[in-house]
Write a structure and sequence with these properties.
Layout (H helix, E strand, L loop, with lengths): L2 H11 L11 H7 L12 H8 L22 E6 L8 H8 L6 E10 L3 E8 L4 E4 L5 H8 L5 E7 L10 E7 L29
Antiparallel strand pairs: 1-6, 2-3, 2-5, 3-4, 5-6
């Protein structure tokens, strides 16, 4: 990794991952469902992909690129979004969720913020939140191609951050010939210049 990339990493990303020397590091990784045992190293990129690199001081959101895996089903984990903005009933129901609990998936077509959205509901039909915005197009493609399933992977009760309250596992199939995260919103804002190679004199 070149020096400029290392500097960029430290300035933008390093302080979005908990320091491995902190006493709370095991609980932090457990909350993200990434705890592989005492003394086991962790991948900071993988941590950012689950935690979304959230900080209270800005709105930057980090997420992993969904990549097609031939021979394996579509499967992704994400934290439930928007549950604090529904109502008290939804907030109370979130606290009663249990790992492994099945969730219902519904396509919302009149969301005031995004138009289309992916709702997550309990089996007793209580809306508890939404899938992240960056996954909407891909999840719609999966939902309209095959049967899907969603369930609670983890529930992190207070004092865990509200943005990391419920980790959801969403599973389905890969639509034929579909490449995920290939829409306009995922295209680079700028194109990196071609490296200039020095010529020997």
């Amino acid at each position: 990794m070149c020096l400029s990339l290392l500097v960029a990493w430290r300035r933008v990303f390093a302080n979005r991952v908990q320091n491995s020397n902190r006493p709370s590091i095991r609980e932090y990784l457990h909350r993200l469902d990434l705890d592989r045992g005492q003394g086991m190293p962790f991948d900071p990129i993988e941590v950012l992909g689950v935690s979304e690199g959230r900080r209270a001081t800005d709105s930057l959101e980090i997420f992993p690129r969904v990549e097609r895996t031939e021979g394996r089903p579509f499967a992704i984990k994400f934290f439930l979004h928007g549950w604090r903005h529904i109502n008290q009933q939804a907030a109370a129901r979130v606290l009663r969720l249990a790992p492994g609990e099945d969730l219902s998936v519904a396509l919302e077509v009149t969301n005031p913020a995004t138009g289309y959205a992916i709702q997550l509901q309990t089996r007793d039909r209580i809306l508890i939140g939404w899938a992240p915005r960056y996954l909407i197009d891909d999840l719609i493609k999966v939902i309209t191609s095959c049967a899907v399933a969603a369930k609670v992977s983890r529930v992190n009760l207070p004092p865990a951050p509200p943005s990391q309250r419920v980790l959801v596992l969403f599973e389905g199939c890969w639509p034929e010939g579909y490449e995920p995260m290939n829409g306009q919103q995922f295209q680079p804002l700028v194109t990196a210049p071609e490296p200039v190679l020095a010529q020997a004199s």
